Flagellar P-ring protein
Amino acid sequence: MAGLMLVAVLLLPVSAFATSRIKDIADFEGVRDNQLVGYGLVVGLNGTGDDLKKSVFTRESLIGMLERLGVNARDTKLDTKNVAAVMVTAALPPFGRQGTRIDIQIAALGDANSLQGGTLLVTPLLGADSEVYAVAQGPVAIGGYTASGDASTVTKGVPTSGRIANGAIIEREVGFAMNSMQNVKITLRNPDLTTAQRVADAINGYLSLDAARPLDPTTVQVTIPPTFNGDTVALLTKIEQLPVEPDEVAKVVIDENNGVIVMGANVRISTVAIAQGNLTIRVTETPQVSQPNAFSNTGTTTTVPRTNIQVDEQNGQKLAVVPAGVTLQELVNGLNALGIGPRDMISILQSIKAAGALQADIEVR
């Protein structure tokens, strides 16, 4: 049954998988996140916080916080490990309204061992303009732990980082009047001239007028028609659902560290002959001990070397000819027929590119 289902999937028309909605391949102007960052203190740690003698910034922050609360600790010798300095990060969602809660991430800044059981004190979160957009506070939840004894320590995950669900409240909104816009820019996530033109054609075809035009491989500008003046949201709601067939460049992405190869469907090669083989020499030493006969007065015990050398030239690997204009599947089948692994395939693809026979870009990471 599973085999029949697989065959049915493979027999579906290619066009069923080729189109995507505009909202899945592009972003609309003004609809974006904004990064926030803040510096705060986590308290209530069970002796796993910062060493105040080493982490001077934690000590000064603790003294400053106490002074704001009316406690003079400047001349006191502080010696606690229940406090940790942390960096707090969050993403301000598009059109986030005042009073809305957002999630925050927390990471230790000093030499704390764990943030388990800690509580973040009130921490302002700043945007790129140094203005406060949210305020964070709450108990920290971590995804790891540390257990130690006199002879061993067990650590799971990263106990020095955590998160607080709905841990920050938005205090300032990012002003953006979308409904009053006369032009809207659509930004493609994968820049491409053909895809940009297809997006513009799809929008113009839906509106039955020349309202969209590509400005560059990344941007498509849409002029708001008179019928949608003051109601840009309704127009964008209809536009984002339009199907478009994205185009892509022929590219081979290679990750040499992990031996991963990803090839696009448009990869083509010219006629080329490929041969792959490795010379393997295996040397095995099996020394044997030679002893004289019993009660012999002249013989001595010696070690006699025994060496076995095996040479594998992989003569079974022959030259394979890959014809011009083969598809991606045929190229993969041809390389697999040589019986090679991913790392050898990386070298072969790079050699084909060097020979000028690979009609694609190679991106090595």
Q: What stands out?
A: The chain is about 20% helix and 35% strand.
